[in-house]
């Protein structure tokens, strides 16, 4: 690891290319979700988490951890989704409500997921190809692990409940 505080030209170019790629890809995917299905990226993320849970429900604090959202952001977004009939908040014994995907929410994710997967394949998976995709997965796991270790020791960043 370099002790130099500034990125050199190659490092700067790679970092900025990554930022531009990530922003462009996410914006493009979200525009398609919004235009074609009336869902935001945030709606999609919540619906994916709920639809992939065994019971179709999660406690709010579990969703907060899964999405890495602050409690207030999650609460406001869940309220908007509930008004649209995509999720339902259910009281439970703990102070955290359970969030359940509704039939409408399940129908929405089943409708949009294939199109979202096709776009991810077209603009991400196919561009990388299998070998580079495998390397990307390894590097991404390393970065997440490095950040996780940093957070454990230098800056615990627990989501406030």
The number of helical elements comes to 5
Beta strands, count: 3
| CATH class identity of one domain | Mainly Alpha
Superfamily (CATH H level) name of one domain: Winged helix-like DNA-binding domain superfamily/Winged helix DNA-binding domain
N to C succession of SSEs:
HHEHHEEH
- Indicate the multimeric state: single chain
Give the CA-CA distance, first to last residue.
35 Å
Strand order within the widest sheet? 1-3-2
Structural class: mainly alpha
Share in helix: over 70%
Q: What fold name goes in the CATH topology slot of one domain?
A: Arc Repressor Mutant, subunit A
**Mean pLDDT across residues:** 93
Supply Rg: 19 Å
- Please report which band the strand proportion falls in: under 5%, 5-15%, 15-25%, 25-35%, 35-45% or over 45%: 5-15%
Largest sheet: 3 strands, antiparallel
The stretches of 5 or more residues where confidence is low (pLDDT under 50) are none
What CATH architecture of one domain do you see? Answer: Orthogonal Bundle
Envelope shape: globular
